[in-house]
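I hope you will forgive my troubling you with a question about protein structure. The matter concerns a single protein, recorded as an amino acid sequence and a row of backbone structure tokens. Please examine both parts with care and let me know of anything in them that strikes you as inconsistent. Here, with my thanks, is the record as I have it:
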Amino acid sequence: MPIDPDTFRSVLGRFASGVTVVTTLDADGRDHGLTVSAFASLSLSPPLVLVCIARDASVHAVLRDSSHFVVNLLSSSQEALSRRFAGHALDRFAGIGYSRGQSGVAVLDDVLAYIECRNARQHDEGDHTIFVGEVEAAGTSETRALLYYRGGYATLER
């Protein structure tokens, strides 16, 4: 018998994760983005990462059809940005700072790091799709990370 959903959610909530915003472009060149905590490195050689997106998420269909995406790792000062991209705002990019990566996808200002990826492979599992990104560019800054733990935000002191 499978574990009940409330217990599973409670157990997973005890795993501290970084907070990311995944950005991409649709076929008309419009920006899309979503707060994502299900992110991981997959391989150093070749450099691969993965993000898991619920199939009912607003960005899912756009990401499925896009050639590139950027994983923006949020800094400790970007909790409001995380909430904005997790919500239902019509234009999540209105009034925020960003530049364009080499693929044209938005790289958010003041992030801890960013990873620009070619959308290489997709795997449907459960109620999510696993998007595998081949890393084409990346960058870092010297700020602290924003973390998500037990349903709330936290930061590291280092």
About this structure: The chain has one domain: 19-149. The helical segments are 5-12, 60-65, 79-86. The first helix runs from residue 5 to 12. Residues 19-149 form a domain with the Pnp Oxidase; Chain A fold (CATH 2.30.110.10).
